Every structure is written in structure tokens, then in C-alpha cells.
Amino acid sequence: MLTLENVVAGYGSTTIVQGISLEVSSGSCGVLVGPNGHGKTTLLRAISGLLKVRSGSVTFDGADITKLRAEKIVERGLIHIPQGDLVFPDMTVAENLQLGAFTRTAAKRAKRRLEEVYDIFPRLLEREHQRSRTLSGGERRMLALGRGMMGDAKLMMIDEPSLGLAPVIIDEVYRQIRRLIDSGLTVLLVEENFGRAQELASQMHLIENGSVVKSGAPAEILDDRTVRETYLGVAE
Ligand SMILES: Nc1ncnc2c1ncn2[C@@H]1O[C@H](COP(=O)(O)OP(=O)(O)O)[C@@H](O)[C@H]1O
Ligand SMILES: [Mg+2]
């Protein structure tokens, strides 16, 4: 569904993403793990067209999207849920969800999508007419995911959904991401917590200094001695 070949991206004269190749197959969940500041968010921004891909290619759902503008990429169903909760605080839950269906294709299916969102996130239905600023952190995260669904997502890139949330709320958010995957959505997730990543991942990609240093099933990644020592603090 998503294929990256030697993707290079950065800011100004700095190259951050140093030629990344990876694949996310339809219906699976790929997870990018790795230390802070090593280019995971930058990679997602390059895929979604928010940042220029300097070289290499991005293929999504059979089409080359490397040079497409961000809104054209969204229109194809590749939706990026950025790090942090970028929902509009003074708009209601329902208004925020409607905003997610801004493309023409998504607008046509908005009614059915809204039912699906409320089915997966019943809490959002309960809070439908509340301003988003009155939601809890976990609810805001759910709203951001729901808004992504409204965009008629085929593949959702979710950047650190657990960031800043209490463990019990993270459990809840992760259960809902699991439901999205079970409903057929393809996901590319960034998660710094190995344990959480492992629960959902079909494939994990370890990113260091803007490169993929290891890819594989969670068990293979966790089997790697360097990974265990560096990320899990296990001395061997
Ligand atoms: N808008 C920006 N302008 C310049 N440098 C940036 C910008 N955003 C991030 N960076 C730098 O790019 C590097 C990678 O950041 P990022 O992709 O956010 O890492 P990660 O998501 O893995 O924590 C960091 O050194 C960061 O300081
Ligand atoms: Mg990041």
C-alpha cells in the first residue's frame, strides 16, 4: 500500500532523513521506533507532502505521490495525524470531525464515516456538542483519530498517540487503534515505547540518525542485542 524508496528529506541545508526505504502492506501496521530527534516525524511530514522529498520516491496505493501537494495526498486517503492534539479548541466535537471531511471525496461519504467514528469512539458521540477545549487529553486524542477517519483514510499515519497521556488512557487509545486496524485500515505509527509498539506492529522499523537500521517482526527487533541494551536497558 505504501512504498518508500531511498527517501531523503530535511530542513534548509540540513538533511535529516537519509535515504529511507520501507513498505507498509495493506491492512498491516508498520511502526517506526527509535530515539527522539532522529527523524521519525520528519519522515511522516515528507510522506504526507508537508515537506519536500529531496530524492527517492513515495508510492501509495499504486500511484507515485512523491511530488504531489499535501491536499492531493489527503484526497487519496493518506491521512497524517500529527504529534500533539491539533484540534480546534473552540469548535465542538462534531464541527472538528466535519473538518476532517474537507476533500470532495470525503465530503460525499461524511455521513457514513461519522457513524463509523461514533461507533468506534462512543465517547465522542456523548460529547458531540461540547467544545473541544473541555475534553480530556485522551478524548482529544480520540477526536484527532476520528477526524482522520473522516478524511476517508485508507492509510493513517499516527505520530506518537501515547505522548503525554496517563497509562490507563494510553490503553484505551491503543484499543481503539487496534479496532481501526481490525476494521481494515492500514496504519503507519510512530511510537517511542517499545512495549506499546509491539502490541500493534506487524513490522517494526528502527530509525537512527535518519536511517532504518533494522526492520522486522517485533520479536526479531526485540531479539536484537543492541536494541535490548539501548532501548530496554537490558545488560547482557
Ligand atoms: N521545522 C524544523 N526546522 C529545522 N529542524 C527541524 C525542524 N523540525 C525538526 N527539526 C530537526 O530535525 C531532527 C529530527 O526531528 P524529528 O523528525 O522531529 O525527530 P523525531 O520525530 O524522531 O523525534 C531534529 O534534530 C530536529 O531538531
Ligand atoms: Mg517526532
Give structural notes.
This protein has eleven helices and ten strands. The chain has 236 residues and is α/β, with parallel strands linked by helices. It has a single domain (2-231), classed as 3-Layer(aba) Sandwich (Rossmann fold). It has a six-stranded mixed β-sheet with strand order 6-7-8-3-9-10, with helices on both faces. Strands 2-1-4-5 form a four-stranded antiparallel β-sheet, covered by helices on one side. Helix 3 (93-99) packs parallel to helix 7, helix 5 packs antiparallel against helix 7 (137-150) and helix 7 (137-150) packs parallel to helix 8 (167-182). The longest helix is centred in the last third of the chain and has 16 residues, at 167-182. The termini are far apart. The chain binds adenosine-5'-diphosphate and magnesium ion (MG). Magnesium ion is lined by residues 40-41, 83, 159.
Question: What's the helix and strand layout?
Answer:
Elements: E1 2-11, E2 14-24, E3 29-33, H1 40-47, E4 55-60, E5 63-64, H2 70-75, E6 78-81, H3 93-99, H4 104-108, H5 110-120, H6 122-126, H7 137-150, E7 155-159, H8 167-182, E8 186-190, H9 194-200, E9 203-208, E10 211-216, H10 218-223, H11 225-231
Parallel strand pairs: 3-8, 3-9, 6-7, 7-8
Antiparallel strand pairs: 1-2, 1-4, 4-5, 9-10
Helix pairs in contact: 3-7, 5-7, 7-8
The protein binds adenosine-5'-diphosphate and magnesium ion.
